[in-house]
Predict the 3D structure of the following.
Amino acid sequence: MGKKKITVSVISDLTTDQRVIRICTTLQEMGFSVKVIARCFTNSLPLDTYPFEAKRICCYWRKGILQYAEFNLRLFFRLLFCKTDYFLANDLDVLVPNYTIGKIRGKALFYDTHEYFTGVPELRDSHLKRKCWKFIENQIFPKLKTVYTVNESLKNIYTKEYGNEIAVIRNVPVTTRIDQNPLPENWKHKIILLLQGAGINKGRGGLQLMKAMQYLPDNYLLLFIGSGNQWDLLVKKRIKWGLENKVKLIDKLPPEKLKKYTPLAHIGFSLDSFEDLNCRFNLPNKIFDYIHAGVPVLATDIPEVDAIIKQYGVGRCFNNNEPEAIAKAVKELIEDEKAYRQYKVNCIAAARELCWEIEKDKLIAIYKPYLKPH
């Protein structure tokens, strides 16, 4: 009897979606035959060599509701005719075709909700769009049998709203040897600050962090590495605020290349806002990436991030993400040399626990029963 097949859907750019790559790799290692269907963007990086099959859908529409409608329509027909035993949907924006085709074809559906989708900042002022997405979620979520998410806060919210039993699979990295890039000559003797990630979006603190550089001395250098819906605005503000010599923007990189930059930083940032539910209950990949790179963290004290930083002693949290407050927190951390050294030591210890080698056991427990014939 051949391997059980799982068809995985995600609307993100697969090359930078470390969660999807990790999970699909683990499923393939378990003995499933995994195929991922993702989206191709104009700035997408070339697909890497993965242990699973990966395909992309190219869409004409690039933004707004039409991009979701087009991708989901194309995805619907891909799923309708693909050879598979199971479907795995990543987030609400691919759930409708997965649920519908799953029902039509009598196939089990797994749902990985990476965020509180209807609480993202982009929907804050778009009440009609939010109502539409919430209506879709209300119709489908209570009927889902196998759901997992990224942290306890989101689990509790969804369980309270819909009553589902939900597992938690955190966004922790695979432990790997990190060979950092050589430090560029003009970065030497600089205190390097870093905000990385493919989701440098509204509500993630990018603009506030850039403006904070106006309150820091010239020996500080801020790196943005990634992408997001505020990237173009950051490019413009860097020039407008005269920060060309203090701020560098590096377009998104494949995870393996990004890992070579992260250890160069003195401080890694996570600056989610308090206003939006999705930001408030977020637990981003970057927190764990910084820890694995031995980089102390400065973050806004949203519950999940605050809990990790305090439990493992890997940095500091503060409750004000305004530029002057950020600059003050940076200076205080760098000047407290004893505490800073201890945070770096604690990162090494924390990385031994906060790793995929341990976390994946929970994922394996979810999927293992489905390896057998039903």
